[in-house]
Amino acid sequence: MGYSADLAEDGDKALSLLSKTPYAAAFVDIRMPGVEGIEVLERVQARKSPTRFFIMTAVRRPDAAARSTRAGAAEFITKPFDIEYIEKLLKDLEKESSSRERPFRAEDAEEWRSARIVGKSRAILEVFQSVGKVADSDATVLLLGERGVGKELVARCIHDLGSPGGPFVAVNTSAIPRELQEAELFGFEKGAFTGAETAREGKLEAAMGGTLFLDEIGDTPLELQAKLLRVLQEKEFTRLGSNRPLRFQGRVIAATNRDLRRLTADGKFREDLFDRLNVFPVRVPPLSERKEDIPLLSDFFLQKYCTLLARPPKSFSKEALEELSSRNWKGNVRELENFVQRLAVLSAGKLLRREEVARELAKAEGAPDLATAPLEQVIEERVREFVRRLGDSIEDEEDLHALFLRQMEKPLIKVVMEAARGNQIKAAGILGINRNTLRKKLAALSLLPKPKSKKKKRKSR
Which of 50, 53, 98 is nearest to 76 (CA)? Predict the structure, then answer.
């Protein structure tokens, strides 16, 4: 391939070479005379070596794979492997080494923690426009959208643009015990109830001059809704155990993933409170409506967590981003962010490839380890992957079935012919069809061996 390489016949020779030369990559077998491969990796990594290790083995042992990963191996390669795959690993390594690393700075962490909406899709641009229109006013905002779409992030962006110096106080009443909700929100005076030994301000007072964010407003009890209505109508509230009203000076932003109109019709949400909240509604779209933003979000989260976790900079390959974009993220942006954070922690390499992303996605979805799973389970997972990749574009179930059969037929016949060493009678018997049918399929699928060209005999003079 054009790379310069050295060969070590055992672990001791490998350690000797690695102590003298800063190799870019080392392909190391597990089973070797003397010091075994994983121990070579562990010893070298203890010296903070820049060498990227690729561990190779003919035995698929989960304990060996786990130990290699913990020791810092970039890849655990099982034999037999495709030499083209090795070439791809080295090319990826070249790309990584060409990018310069910047040392971690404390101010970078603060920058990543600030509120930031990422995307360029039409759906998210509409959210940008809404944020820009309402930020400078004190109008009450109602954020609507599924769980995990980023409603609190949008609320923070509105606050940062409109009240950058004031506090941002987030409250989720459904996460507070029912008997403590009023005291938590409005505060209380000393002796207001058993255990109230000192007076304490509530979330409303804490949000003075800034923004009170009421998350999951649809889960608020009816008795508390009446008190919130007074805050929105009269801009005042009263602590528990007090008769003195306090003036609320601040903005209220509420959010919900529920249908408030339906809750109102069912008598579970006050209509007058809904009218007060619905002054400026903003719908935050689910990730399924902004799939073109997934690559941007993935890159953003990877850079964010590499910085916050003080990890070396990493990036996604184009194919890895395609893999992420093809998935249905039911938990929306929150699920995607959590998954990318996991990759930032687990990945040993600087370039995250499709294979690694797909493997971690399968683990996250509870898929079995295909290296040790029964054959039926392996086939089931492969079929599930096929349907996931092609099913979105197929509306008719019969069409999907026919497509699957067409896709499976050629590789199946090819593998059986290889197993039968080209013997068509034997291959036909394995497949349960007659030889003539097999021959027709071989011709139709361009699997018949090419006829050998006959060499012309020289005529003697």
Answer: 53
Containing structural domain, residue 240: 122-284
Say how far residue 42 (Cα) sits from the centre of its chain.
30
Strands 141-144, 251-256: parallel, antiparallel or unpaired by DSSP? parallel
With 0-12 CB in 10 A as exposed, 13-18 as middle and 19+ as buried, what is 289? middle
Q: Report pLDDT digits (tens) over 159-204.
A: 988 887 889 999 998 888 887 888 889 988 888 787 778 888 889 9
127 and 250 inside one domain: yes
Residue with tokens 């959590």: 338
90 and 141 fall within a common domain: no
Read off the pTM. 0.60
Contact of 350 with 316, CB cutoff 8 Å: no
> Phi/psi of residue 296, each to 5°?
-65, -45
Enumerate residues 6+ apart whose C-beta is below 8 A from 111.
none
Same domain, 263 and 138: yes
- For residue 401, the domain's CATH number is 1.10.10.60
